[in-house]
Write a structure and sequence with these properties.
Blueprint (H helix, E strand, L loop, with lengths): L4 H68 L4 H6 L13
Length: 95
């Protein structure tokens, strides 16, 4: 005679439990892999952002120095105004 119904049910339950655990393992490995990839991408972008912020500060400092230099060299004003680095100062009207 074949296996008893209880043994058959136990085998089915064991097989289902094993399948669920394997599926869970596969999903978890996939999610960890995606998480590691996203972490690495975030780190690369953080380094790039830091570099861009540093460059932006350097450019801003350069622009401030140009405006300061234009106080001594007024001939530079039209160029700075053309590129909107320095605002044009309206001539004051005598009263």
């Amino acid at each position: 005679m074949g296996p008893e119904p209880q043994q058959k049910a136990l085998r089915i339950i064991t097989a289902l439990g094993t399948a669920i655990l394997l599926l869970s393992l596969i999903v978890n490995v996939y999610l960890v892999w995606k998480n590691v990839g996203l972490y690495r991408e975030t780190q690369r972008k953080a380094v790039r952002l830091s570099s861009m912020e540093s460059q932006m500060r350097d450019w801003q400092q350069f622009m401030l120095e140009l405006v300061e230099y234009s106080h001594k060299q007024p001939a530079l004003d039209p160029v700075l105004q053309k590129y909107m680095i320095k605002q044009s100062t309206p001539a004051t009207k005598p009263r």
